[in-house]
């Protein structure tokens, strides 16, 4: 039995999740908010946009202007989505 790495996980269309093919930042953020909620996102990533009066619009503005923050959000999305596709619990 081989175990797939997160980097090898594919979505329903067959694209590697790690490539974020066709996924917009707003879709990533909406997925993470639905999966974890604002308080848990703040606890995991420690960003004020998730702690202080959070909204999709304000978070998108911050993430588009802050490359390191966007990278952290994308990495969490890849881990969470890969776990979901592979039938494992979310990290």
What are the main properties of this structure?
single chain; 91 residues; mainly alpha; 0% strand
Description:
This protein is mostly helical. The protein is 58% helix and 0% strand. The chain has five helices and no strands. It has helices spanning 25-36, 38-45, 48-51, 56-65, 67-85. The radius of gyration is 13 Å and the shape is globular. This is VF530 family protein.
What is shown here, in short?
The chain has 91 residues and is mainly alpha-helical. The protein has 5 helices and no strands.
One letter per element, helices H and strands E, the order comes to: HHHHH
**SS class:** mainly alpha
Gross geometry? globular
Task: Tell me roughly what share of residues is in helical segments.
Answer: 55-70%
Alpha carbon gap, first and last residue: 22 Å
Strand content: under 5%
Number of strands: 0
Q: Mean of the pLDDT scores?
A: 85
Radius of gyration: 13 Å
The biggest sheet, with number of strands, parallel, antiparallel or mixed sense and barrel status, is: none
Uncertain stretches: none
Number of alpha- plus pi-helical segments: 5
Protein name: VF530 family protein
Pfam families: VF530
